[in-house]
Amino acid sequence: MLLIESNDDDDDDDDNDDDDDDDDDDDDDDDDDDDDDDDDDDDDDDDDDKNSKTWVASAFLNKDLVRITSYAAQIFLRPRFSKLLLIIRHVLRCSLVLLFIRCRLTVLKHLYSL
Q1: N or C, which end of the chain has less CB nearby within 10 Å?
Q2: Is the separation of the CB atoms in 38 and 13 below 8 Å?
Q3: Cβ atoms of 12 and 31 closer than 8 Å
Q4: What is the pLDDT of residues 35-46, one digit of tens each?
Q5: Rounded distance between C-alpha atoms, residue 17 and residue 69, angstroms
Q6: Integer Cα distance of 71 and 77 in angstroms
Q7: Which range (3-7, 10-14, 26-30) has the least confidence?
Q8: What residues contact residue 92 under an 8 Å CB cut-off, 6+ apart?
Q9: What is the SS3 assignment for the chain?
Q10: Are 76 and 82 in contact (CB under 8 A)?
Q11: Quick one: where's region Disordered (predicted)?
Q12: What is the pLDDT of residues 57-107, one digit of tens each?
C-alpha cells in the first residue's frame, strides 16, 4: 500500500510541474505528512523485529527448559527419589484441595452476607 501511495505522489509531482509554483508548495506540505506516515510504518517494522527476536529467544529458552526437565525427570525416576516424589505429589494435592475448600468457603461467606 505504501508503494501505491508513493507512486501516486510521483504522478502528482509530474502533474504539478506544469502548474503554478503555489500548488507545488501545497503538495510539499502533503509530502511531509506522508513522510510522517512512513516513520510510523518504520516503527511497525521495529516491532516485528523485536517480536522475531523474542520468538528466537523463547525458542532457545524452551530448548534449555526441555533439557533441564529431562535431567530432573532422570533424577526423580531413580528408586530412592520415587518415594520423595510421591510424598511431594501428595502434599501438593492436599494443599490444592485445602485451597479449593478455602475458596469455596470464602465465596459462600460472601454470598450469605449479601
Answers
A1: C
A2: no
A3: no
A4: 555 555 555 555
A5: 69
A6: 10
A7: 3-7
A8: none
A9: CHHHHHHHHHHHHHHHHCCCHHHHHHHHHHHHHHHHHHHHHHHHHHHHHHHHHHHHHHHHHHHHHHHHHHHHHHHHCCHHHHHHHHHHHHHHHHHHHHHHHHHHHHHHHHHHHC
A10: yes
A11: 1-52
A12: 555 566 666 777 777 667 666 666 677 777 888 888 888 888 888 888 888
Residue type, 93: R
Cell numbers 523463547 correspond to 58
Residue given cell 516491532 in the structure block: 47
Cβ distance 3 to 9 under 8 Å?
A: no
Q: Which amino acid is at 49?
A: D
